[in-house]
Amino acid sequence: MRQSDLTADGEADTPRREAALAAAPLLVLGAAGTGKSELLARRLAGLAAAGTPAGRVLVIGARRATARRLRDRCEALLEGPYEELWVACWEEIGERLLREHAEAAGLDPFFDVLGRAERLAVLLERLDSLPLRRHEIRGNPAGLLARLLARIDTLKAERIGPTTLAEMAEREVEEAGDEAAHESARREIEFAELYTAHDRILAESGSLDRGDVFLALDCLLVERPDVRAALAERFAEVIVDELEESTPAQRALFEGLAGENPRQVFALEADAEGSADPALEAWYRDLHPGGDAIVLERRFREPRLRFWKCANERAQAQATAREVEHLLAGGARADGICVLLADPTREGGAIAAAMEERGIPFHLAGPTALFQRAEVRDAIAWLRVLADPDDSAAAARALTRPPVELRPGDLARLTTIARRRKLDMVAGCEAALDSPQFQPEARERIQTFLKLYGNAAAAMEERRADVFVRRLIEAVGLRRQRLFAAQPEVAERLLGLSRLAELATAWARREPHGSTRGFVAYLAAVAEAGVEPTGGEEPPAPGAVVGLALGAVKGLGFDHVFALGLEAEAEWGRIGWPARAEMVLSRVAGGEAGAPARAYAEALAASPDAVEEEHGEELFGPAEGLHATYRSVREQVLEASWRAGRELSEPRLDTAIDVNRAIARYLELLKLAALAQRPGEEGTAEAIEAVNGLLRQVATPEQQAELDASSLDAYLLDSERERGRRLQLIAAREEPSLEAFLPRRGDGRLSLSASDLTLYLTCPLKYKFARVFGIPQEPTINQRFGILMHNVLERFHKEPPEAGDELRTLNRLFEAGWRRGGFGTSDDEMQYRDRGREALRLYWERERVSESEPVWLERKFDFKVADHHVRGRVDRVDRLPDGGYELIDYKTGERKTEAELDSDLQLALYRLAAREAWDIEAAFASYDYVLDAEKVAAPTKPDDAERVERTVVTVGEGVLSQDFEPRPSPSVCSWCDYRLVCPAAES
């Protein structure tokens, strides 16, 4: 392979360079930003100028976005007329070629190409027939199937079919040396069976997946020489950008055509020294032994590099939003700014919140970005509660969001009625209309919900999914609520609703006989599994800052790029140089690895004059500023006026209240405008008092009462004080009615348990949903299984069997509890059954040699800590041979090590409870991980009692002050039952 450098002179478009590029086959090597894509576009234009019709040149880009940019550039360079352009991404090119030769490939010309989301829905419908006995479902089949589908896609990209995989697994069984290896190999055989079933299900429906497209093309070119010759003749030249992003299955297309037409040009990314992926270079040499190669050395993108070291993720998000605000103020285009994230689903919320605080339009792209948008979540909540009235989280969101907007205290009353009468939330609403606990205002809001629900439920069975979704969006008023909002991201939100309707249309087209309930199940599955839904293209976001996954930016260009999260090792090397003017590399101090990622460290080392800029977290964030607060209140004013206007057209008992509230919000907006523009050095307190005096002259008594109840003045005056005081002020004014729903004993003291403490410390908002609102939740299979194991062990020790009959008794108790618990025969449930029986066998093996003696089972405690009551129960208390005691709590979840239990709260609380409530000193406190057959003791520390008391006091103060701010965390939020109703899950 001959190799030469054509850019040493630094000119990207010299005639000498273009002339040299007439050679083919050709491999173009160059680092990101060296003009590879521009060179390919010019090659197409040059071929067209020399007489080759543009439609006879096949140009392939790695992704839709990069292929679109390449197509736009080709169109701009082409001077003469042309019939068509074959410039598209791999998916589009492959499907188009296969459709044109579907008959030769033995396919229906109208075959469907299903994405991962559609295949997930298909497999979920057939879950009981899938071979999943050896794969741990753990109550989440959507998540497991999404992971298995991703592996199937990877195997197809590598040209490995189910038969080959099964043969490999059989060899693993033969070579396995122990039981663990045997089990792993048997699981691999089962996966090969699932792979086969997956392909059979698609074939029966006349569908393919995206991997099948290129496998079918490969077979077609091998088996039909006439088709191969026709394709080789049809395209005078094939041009491929970003060869490094291609798969073996895709590259097989060129292997099949190379013998008939070797005019193939590939662009391959290389490092600064011109070295690229050795395997791909070898592939090109084998395919075209005499082919040429050129190296592009000059990089045409040399952005200014900056390095950030941020205190935490919140500080990183704030610094990014602040910098973006400065760029926009300086005239930069919003859509010329990009924020790169390793995982937009997990990390995008903090960035979106920081952007919203500054009123910056922000478009977060990613597999589940659509389902993080508030207006889409509102629509999904209505769809879910219409499909299943027992979906209490969906009902709670539908009730508390526009157009119903039930007050928090009324929601707490409603959930109390539903729990006590064992009703679903919709039936609970009907029962609430007869309850004297609800004021006329609340009854009217509940009636509004029931009216909307009744009308929609009647139409749900009669309309196609796409028609119903569009009608629901209009009937509930989700689109109208946004029409007059002033924030610049309004168009983005309206596009989100349109995208949801497009998904329904695409689903109805694929499932012409499907029901709306089926569409809702599909939506819930893809949202939970985090896969990209297909059907309609992700709408562009002109005028908005773009948030992208790092793998999606390659080949794109922006003026300013912020690469965040460089404390963790990820594929940051793949992003290239997407910035034209400036690129910020940011890391969080003390990240997961304790050091910056390699890409960050290398870039910093290569910039000897660069200095790491340090950014700390702003305690209150930019919303404390008058201008940002003005923007926030402006949104509230428009929302309040829209709501009040609706009620003026349909008067109800609380109309006057909402009208006065809307006017009071407008007067506050005037106050903020006056404060922001006040002349001189007048202090904030004096200025507020002066403005308030003028407003008192125009406000009615009712409006003045609203202004007096507002927390705005305190919000502005206390901006430099502790966060806790401000939250107490706001909470006390916004939700005073929740005081009656806090969990108290008869003496009025707060009642807390170990799980309450853990729940509040994990996320105060989740505590509010679960303990204050008491939103009903169906127990998961994990929870039901845990309860079963606890009951079996309690019964076993309460009524000890005769000697020699212990294991038989354990199994009998387990089987009886299994039947009573309503467990079935699905793969998921049978896995739990097998694990439970094995766990009980191992449990007895340990018990028979244990020297301790159970003396109390499920023993309760209740004692005072400061001004609060702490209650609970200990699963088992053993007397040790030396006369001491051990407290034991059974666990059926993931095992933790002793080091991970170093600061455990629950067992420390149990030790304190044993001393205070039972007057005994427990020498040990342990978790018995039943499924792992291992007991792990939590370390005992001298300050355990003080730590527990301090925690109880802190949590008690937070609950009493109604400080229920969310604490988003990937490990918690991904499993939370209240994701749909939680505002922290929105972007």
Question: What characteristics describe this protein?
Answer:
38 helices; globular; 7-stranded parallel beta sheet; 987 residues; disordered N terminus; 51% helix; single chain; alpha/beta; 13% strand
Write the layout of secondary structure elements.
Blueprint: E1 2-5, H1 15-20, E2 26-30, H2 36-49, E3 57-61, H3 64-77, E4 86-89, H4 90-100, E5 112-114, H5 116-125, H6 141-157, H7 162-175, H8 179-204, E6 207-209, H9 210-223, H10 225-234, E7 237-240, H11 248-258, E8 264-269, H12 278-287, E9 292-296, E10 304-310, H13 313-329, E11 337-341, H14 344-357, E12 362-364, H15 374-387, H16 392-400, H17 408-420, H18 425-432, H19 440-460, H20 465-476, H21 480-483, H22 490-510, H23 516-529, E13 545-549, E14 558-563, E15 579-588, H24 598-605, E16 612-615, H25 626-649, H26 655-676, H27 684-696, H28 701-709, H29 712-717, H30 723-734, E17 750-753, H31 754-762, H32 764-772, H33 781-798, H34 806-820, H35 827-847, E18 853-865, E19 868-879, E20 885-891, H36 906-917, E21 922-929, E22 934-937, H37 944-960, H38 970-973
Parallel strand pairs: 1-9, 2-8, 2-9, 3-4, 3-7, 5-6, 7-8, 10-15, 10-16, 11-13, 11-14, 12-13, 14-15, 17-19, 20-21
Antiparallel strand pairs: 18-19, 19-20, 21-22
